[in-house]
């Protein structure tokens, strides 16, 4: 029989081998492998008793919590498909994913039930028994129209579900962050999930003695892939279940749980390292052996500060995607000598090709679209054959990223293909301009956007966040750019916003599409205001200030 261990099989194995070991925990409760296996098995049977069949999709909406570990395992055991939804989404965005995926059940954390209430009528595929909630305070009544997650588990059988799960069956339908349009559902198989877990364990040299702290959202591929890795090994996963990032609390957790690995974005590290020395000195993080940084470029000073603080930690930087999985890795010994690159291919990732518009490989040093061939690549986009066809050239997969490769095989990401600006016939790669702007000592974060322009087709504009206490105006920064980049790359305008107003995905990536929409809206409003003023008072011309705040 064609069979490959799923994450549910891995939990069952470790429930037999070391039943009393903690497999997963958050701040509220811990699960031994035996408890985890029992609850996941009962939940699988409880969901099947609601009329769900193999292959049915189940939408999941929750903050980070240990229940995610139960849910991914139970759905795998039942042959059901997890549809994790970002808890930061609005009700209409949630409705789109649940509807598009044709979810037949919806499991929601109690705090988010009100978010879902307005859209229930739109989700006709979910019958009365498919609305399940968890996390209510002790003694609280189950909301009307919902059934209790705990009651469902308690009433269900602990026997193995009568369903055969095969390697090629879909395990998860992961909706992309939608930085450039409507989110697409990436179909991930059990085989792909297991292979990426094994490849991660091999490349990163993880063992069953590791303890991982999962900070990134559990609805995101980063935490999904790393959680499966540690589950297959029989290691312990600690879920950071705070509602917002707290750098000191993170240090406290690293010290208390003797965490050996965590994966963070640059902003997390910057906030943590900015804590006063006396605060950082309170926490012993000597157990940390491996660190991952991803999702955005990290500066040299940030990496040096990470290595200085985590004296026993080795820093890794990865590039990958929900669709392709891990693609490249910048290994610890390469962090400073290959700064700015994302390394070379991940062990087991196959190979990388950089192709031009005609599908021909570009020479080293030139920009091409990055295609990878991985053993754990996704199976296409749900109900979207056109986008699936665009993502593949034969067995080679691309998510539209542009990159260049040097003679030693190191990859430098240039930009998302879809974010590329064409101004006056010249290609402008936002990440290149962002890198130059970001080198200014007053700049904390920056995004470069192409906005429509009557003459040039698109004009380059930037939206920047300043470090606290660092005054800087638009003219100073534009003058600073003048000697550092070609004229066609220089922003025509720079707008300053508060960090909280910079739109981001759950993993900290700036949403360029949202910023572009805001800038276009501001420009339209300014044009309309000017026209109105000119009509009423022809002697004056109203001009909107270029440093106007981009409202959230």
From TrEMBL:
GO terms for molecular function: ligase activity. Residues 526-552 are annotated as: Disordered. PROSITE patterns: AMP_BINDING. Residues 13-382 form the AMP-dependent synthetase/ligase domain. It comes from the Bacteria. Residues 526-539 have a biased composition (Low complexity). Pfam families: AMP-binding (PF00501), AMP-binding_C (PF13193). The keyword Ligase applies. Residues 432-509 form the AMP-binding enzyme C-terminal domain. InterPro entries: AMP-bd_C (IPR025110), AMP-bd_C_sf (IPR045851), AMP-binding_CS (IPR020845), AMP-dep_synth/lig_dom (IPR000873), ANL_N_sf (IPR042099). Keywords: Ligase. Belongs to the ATP-dependent AMP-binding enzyme family. This is Long-chain-fatty-acid--CoA ligase. The lineage of its organism: Bacteria, Pseudomonadati, Pseudomonadota, Betaproteobacteria, Burkholderiales.
